[in-house]
Amino acid sequence: MFPFFSRSKMSDAPEVNPAPAKTHEPHPLDALTGGAFSAATSGERASRIRDWLATQPAPEQLQEVFKELSGRDKGAARAVRERLDEIRRAKGQEAIAAEWADKAQALLAAPKLNIADALAWQRDAAKAGAPLSREPLSLLKVQLADRVKVIEDLQHRVQVQREAAVLLAQRIEVLSTKPWRDAHAALELLRADVARWQEQAQELTGDASWASVEARFPPLLDASRTQLLVVWEAFQPAVAQAAAAAEDVSAPLPPVPVWADELRAARGLPTEAAAAAAASAAASKPARVAKPKVAPEVIEKAHQLVRDALATLEKETAEGHGKASAGAAAALRAVLKVHGKHIDNALEQQVHSALVAAGELEGWQRWSADQVREDLVAKAEALLNRPEGQALGGRKMQETLRNLRDQWKQADQGGAPNHALWKKFDEACNAAHKVVEAWLEKIRSEAAEHKAQRLALIEEVKAWAQEHAASGDWKAINRALYQFGDRWREGGHVGEKIFAELQPLWKQAIALAAAPLESAQKESLARRHAMIDEATALGAAPSLRIDAVKALQQRWQAEAQTVPLDRKHEQKLWDAFRKPIDEAFNRKSVDRDRAVTELSARDRVVLEASKALEAANATGDAQQIRAAMQALEAALRGQAQAAEAVATANKDAQSHAEVQVNAAPAAPLATEVGADASVEAVEGGDATAAAPAPVPATPKPAARPVVAVRGDDRPGMKKDAPVATGRGARPGDRRDGRPGDRDGARGPRTDGRMGDRADRGGRFGDRPAFEDRGPRLGDTAFRAQREAMEHAQLALKKLAAQAHGEALTQLLTAWEKRDAALVPGTQDLGSGVTASVRSAWTQALSAAPKGDAAEALLRLEMAAEAPTPAEHIAARRMLQLQLLTRRNDPAPTQTWGQDVARVLASNSDAANARRLQNVLKTLLRK
C-alpha cells in the first residue's frame, strides 16, 4: 500500500528544516595582508597585496602568503613571487659583491699592484654579474681606477725624466763646443736644472706606488741619472779650470779642446791644430809654394755645388730624417773633398755647423730607434706570457704579430739596424706564431666540414624541390624556403674561394625550389591589382555599397592567406587597397558629421532649455530646478506643437457635435469626454498627449450613435475608463470590430498592407501604443540635455539630503528641549511621515516625559535594520524571540511612527539621541 505520513497536508508548520546560515570565517593571513584573502574581486585582492608589499614584509611572511595565494589567485600572487625573486637575486648579488669586494681589497692592500690584474678584476666582476654600480663595489672600482691612474702617471713621468736627462746632456755637450765664457755664464742655470731633475727623480722613487711600476721603468730612470751625473761631474771641473786658466797664465788648460785653443789664442800661443799643421808642413816642405790663381768660374761653380749640398743637409736635418741626413752629410763631404779648397771661410763655417748638427741627429735617431726596438722585443715576448684567462686568440695573435713587424720596419727606416735586437724579436715572434699556425689548422678543418655541410644542404634543397613541385601549400613552401635560407647563412665560415664556388650552386638550387611559388605570387599580384581597381571603383561611386565592400575584403583576406608575399610589399598593396575604401568611409563620416552639426529648430530649443537648466542648477533652488526640468521635458516632447494640434482637434470635434446633436444624443457627451481627456493629457504632460494629434485630411464618415461605452472590466481597473486602443484578447479581434469577428467593421487600409498596424499594441492587447518621439535630436543637443538632466537630478538629491539632515536635527533639538513647536513640518520630514504620525510626535513632546524608550529603540533598529550597541544586543535578541510568538502583531516596520512617539515621550539623553538619529536616517528615506 501507499505510505502514510503523520503530518497532515494542511498543517501550518513547514516541513523543510531551515538551513543554517553560512559563517565566513576570516583567513588566518587576512590580518597580516590587510584582508587580501577575503577580498571580493581579484583586482581588490591585488591592490591589497600591493599595499601590504609596500610595508616591506619579512621573507618568511612572503613565502607563507605566496604558498596560500598561488592556489587562489595567480594574478595577485605574481607580485609576491616577483618580490621573492628580487630578494633571492639581491642575496645572490650580495654574495657575489662580497666575493669581488674581498678580491678588490686584496689588490688594494698589496704593496705592488699589477695594472693588468686591476683591469682584469673589473672585467671578470662584470662577467660574473657583480653589481659594480652599487656600494661597495662602485667605491672599490673607483679606488682601483685611481690607483692605476697613479701608476700610469708615474710611468709617464719616468719617460719624461728620461727625455729631460737626454736634453740636459745635449745642452752640456753643445756648450762644450762654444766659448768657455758662454759655458761659464750658463753654469748656474744648468746647476739649477740638474738639481731640479734630481729632486723630481727622487720624488718618483719615493712615491708609495713606485713598487707597482713595471719592471722596465726603474732601470731606465737609473741609467738616465747615471749618464747625466757623469756628464755634469765632468763639465763642472772643466769650467772651473777654464776660468782659472783665464786668470792665471801659468794655470793648466782645461781638457776641452775648444776652450784650450781659445785660451792659447788669448795668451798669444798657436793653437794645437795650427802647431801640428806647421810642424808637418815644415817637415814635408822646406819652402812654402804660393797658390796659383783660380778662375772665377771655377770658384762660383764650387760655391754653388757646396751650397746645394748644404741646403739638402739642412732640410733633412730640420725634418729629423736620420738616414736621409746621413746620406746628405756624406754627399756634402764628397763635394768638400773636390771643391773645398775653392770656398771661403764663411761658407766653410756653415758647412761645419751643418755637419755637427747632422751628427747629433744621427746619434739621437740611433738611440731612439734602439729604444723602440727594445719596446717591440718586450711586447713580442709578452705575447706568450699573458695572465691566465687573457691569452690571445689566433686571429688577434696574427694581427698583433703583423703590427709588431710593421713597427720594426718603421724603426729600421729611422736609424741603423740592430742585429742583436732583431734576432731576439724574430725568435719571440716565431714562438708566438705557433698559436697562429694551430688556429689556421683549425680553421682549415672547420672550413672543409662547413663546405661538406653546404654541399649536403644544396642536394637537400634539390630533392625537396622535386618532391614539392606539385604542392599547393604556398605558406608551407615559403616557410621551408626561409628555413633553407637560414640554414645556409648559419652554415659556418668558409674561405672566399670556396664560397665563390658554392654560391652559384646554391642560387641555382634555391631558384629551382622557389620557381612554383614565384609564379603563384605573380598570379596573386595580378589578382590583387584587380581587386585594388575594384576598390577604387567602389570608393569613387556616389553611394557606398557596404555588402560589396565586405565581399571584396573577404576575397582579399582569402587571397592573402593563400599566397604569401614579402611583408613590406604585401603591406604596400594592402595600403593601396584600403585607401579608396577608407576615403569613401571618411567622406560618409564627414557628411554625417556635417548633418549632425547643423542644428534644427527643435535642437536650438532643447539647447536653450538645457542652458536654462544648468543656470538653475547653479542657483541651488529646488523650485527653479524643477521648473527648468519641466521646461526641458516640454522642449523634448514638443508640447507647444502638441497643444496647438489638440486645440485645433477640439474645435473641429465641437463643431461636428453641434451639427449631429439631434441625430445622436450621446455624441456630445462622448465628444466632451474626449475633449476633457485631451485637455487633461496636455496639462499633465502625459506621454500620449505629448505627440501631435493627427488631424484628418478627409471628412469622417457618419458615426453610429453610441449606445453604451464598455469600460475595462478587468480586476483592479476602473469601469468608466475606455478600453485602450490595441489588439483584442484574441488574435482575430480587431480594435474597430467585434470580438471574434475578423471582418466586421474593418475599414479600408490607408498605408498599404501594414498601414493599420502602426498604432496597435505590442504582442498583447493590453500594451499601450508606441509614443511618437518626434524627430531625432542631434548629438550636441542630446548630450547637452542629458548632462543638464543628470546635473539637475544630482542637485535635487543633494538638496533633499541637506533638507533631510536639517529636519532630523530640528526633531532631535525639539526632543531635547521638549518643544513641540520645533518639530519640522510634514513636507520637511518626507512622504514617510503622515500628518497623524507628526501629531503623535508633537503630543508626545508636549506632555511630560514618561516611560522607558529601550523597547521602542530596539523596534526602531529592527525596522531600520541598523546595528544595535553591544550592551543591548541581548535585549534585542530577546525581543526578536518575543515577536516570533506574536503572530498577529504588526511588524516594527509598520509601527515605527508610534515607536518614535514613544521614544520622544521619554527623557532625552545623548546615547538614545544618537541611536534615534541613526535609525531615522534610514526610515525617513523610505
Question: Could you list some keywords that capture this structure?
Answer:
926 residues; mainly alpha; elongated; disordered N terminus
Structural class: mainly alpha
| Secondary structure: number of strands | 0
**Major sheet:** none
**Estimated helix fraction:** 55-70%
Question: What's the multimeric state?
Answer: single chain
Strand fraction: under 5%
Q: Report the C-alpha radius of gyration, rounded.
A: 59 Å
In the predicted model, the low-confidence regions spanning at least 5 consecutive residues are: 1-23, 285-289, 656-703, 705-762
Q: Which geometry do the CA atoms define?
A: elongated
Q: Specify the number of helices.
A: 32
* Mean model confidence by pLDDT: 76
Distance between the termini: 56 Å
Secondary structure elements and their pairing?
Layout: H1 30-33, H2 42-53, H3 59-69, H4 74-109, H5 115-127, H6 137-175, H7 180-185, H8 187-206, H9 217-247, H10 257-267, H11 272-284, H12 296-319, H13 322-339, H14 345-382, H15 394-414, H16 419-467, H17 474-489, H18 496-540, H19 546-562, H20 567-597, H21 601-619, H22 622-637, H23 639-659, H24 666-684, H25 687-690, H26 779-817, H27 826-829, H28 835-846, H29 854-864, H30 873-885, H31 896-905, H32 910-923
Structure commentary:
The chain is 69% helix and 0% strand. The protein has 32 helices and no strands. Helix 12 packs parallel to helix 14.
In short:
This protein has 32 helices and no strands. With 926 residues, the protein is mostly helical.
